[in-house]
Amino acid sequence: MNLALLFNEDFVAPDRAVLRGRRLAHLQSVIKVVAGDTIPVGRSDGRLGTGEVVRLTDSEAELRVTLDQTPPAPLPLTLILAMPRPKMFRRILQTCAALGVKDLWLINSYKVEKSFWQTPWLSDEQLRENLTLGLEQAKDTLMPRVQIRKLFKPFVEDELPALLADKRALVAHPGTTTPCPVHLNQPTVLCIGPEGGFTAYEVGKLEEAGCQSVHLGPRILRVETAVPVLVSRLFDACL
Amino acid sequence: MNLALLFNEDFVAPDRAVLRGRRLAHLQSVIKVVAGDTIPVGRSDGRLGTGEVVRLTDSEAELRVTLDQTPPAPLPLTLILAMPRPKMFRRILQTCAALGVKDLWLINSYKVEKSFWQTPWLSDEQLRENLTLGLEQAKDTLMPRVQIRKLFKPFVEDELPALLADKRALVAHPGTTTPCPVHLNQPTVLCIGPEGGFTAYEVGKLEEAGCQSVHLGPRILRVETAVPVLVSRLFDACL
């Protein structure tokens, strides 16, 4: 937690916020704050700044908040991921949030097991918590938007073409002949398949919608590694 | 496991290897092989190829092995990491191996807790197992070399200068003014600090030894995310 992200419900006055729960525990046990200390804070979807601890009890920390800095720029990226295996999913959410991904779509694919969609990590509350952890890591405030599409074909046929308009559109597909471009730094849609990859039919549908298949070299990477590798390769000027 | 990595002790004849344990369990429960199937294999520190399952029992799979392909190129990188927190360490080892890091040094730093060095993941056997998982993920065979240095100052003063000879040398240091270069694709030494970063004293010693401090932008990334981001940025032509 490189900053404490503050939500509307934390504010008790325009410049006062009260922390409880995980964020309070972190202040107490890791940062070991005392009254009078100043910690980095950010307001969800707002600015960065500092919070002076004006009151500290076992159950609450009240901060006097000054917000005077701009958060890091968002990536110009729409990231479309086949729904990952639940044990990877939390970490992938946190990584996406930390890297500055703001527009994340979770879609179905033949190799996405039905059970993946049952994970409690997909609840609104858990999505927000894990995205918050990524934002707090990276000192960012702008909450990513997550969209869930449990049917592949209607998504690709009815929604994807509009998402691609005026953007570069890529699908990471090991085994294709075109290498992934470097330093695009322009609005881009990137599709990443599940473990084992999109099927040939799915890649065909994505190409039909306007995506270009690109590869990342001979190494097959886990999604949690492929995301930072691809983001870094595409957006070296935006990180 | 995108290939089964075979070690000398697995071979019962020049072209025959026997798998047991984790790799056999994977063949049975995930790939669901039957006798006559062919699976991708690689020989540790050798070539890639295929293994035809010529005998399959509950406890063993015997493969007829053909090795006729070159593994992916190694990265021209010496990666020097402050010893990570044990719960992150396994994943970082696997990620480094999957990305093609072949020369990894684990060093001490002020913010490395003494207990981190007690982790069982540092045993030779566990290092090999986790590096193997990364190589199998990425379809690589060349086992990374891991060096452990539990004293910062003797390492930086006595060993580091020789490691830097004829190489570009960088230390990832959030807050410095020089951005990390892109697509170097040349022999490079990269130092990455612990959670919370190297201390000013440590950065000074690394600079004295010949490292240049560079930053990755305003976002603070976890080591497990910073490694793929930096590797991708420095070696876009090598991945």
From TrEMBL, chains A, B:
- Could you tell me which residue ranges the Ribosomal RNA small subunit methyltransferase E methyltransferase domain spans? 72-233
> What InterPro entries does this protein's entry cite?
Alpha/beta_knot_MTases (IPR029028), RsmE (IPR006700), RsmE_MTase_dom (IPR046886), tRNA_m1G_MTases_N (IPR029026)
Q: What is its EC number?
A: 2.1.1.193
Organism phylogeny: Bacteria, Pseudomonadati, Pseudomonadota, Gammaproteobacteria, Pseudomonadales
Q: Extract the SUPFAM superfamilies matched here.
A: alpha/beta knot
Give the top-rank taxon of the lineage listed in the UniProt record for this protein: Bacteria
Catalysed reactions listed for this entry? uridine(1498) in 16S rRNA + S-adenosyl-L-methionine = N(3)-methyluridine(1498) in 16S rRNA + S-adenosyl-L-homocysteine + H(+)
Q: Molecular function terms in GO for this entry? A: rRNA (uridine-N3-)-methyltransferase activity
User: What would be one Gene Ontology cellular-component term for the protein?
Assistant: cytoplasm
Native source species: Marinobacter flavimaris
Enzyme class, broadest EC rank: transferase
Name listed for the protein in its UniProt record: Ribosomal RNA small subunit methyltransferase E
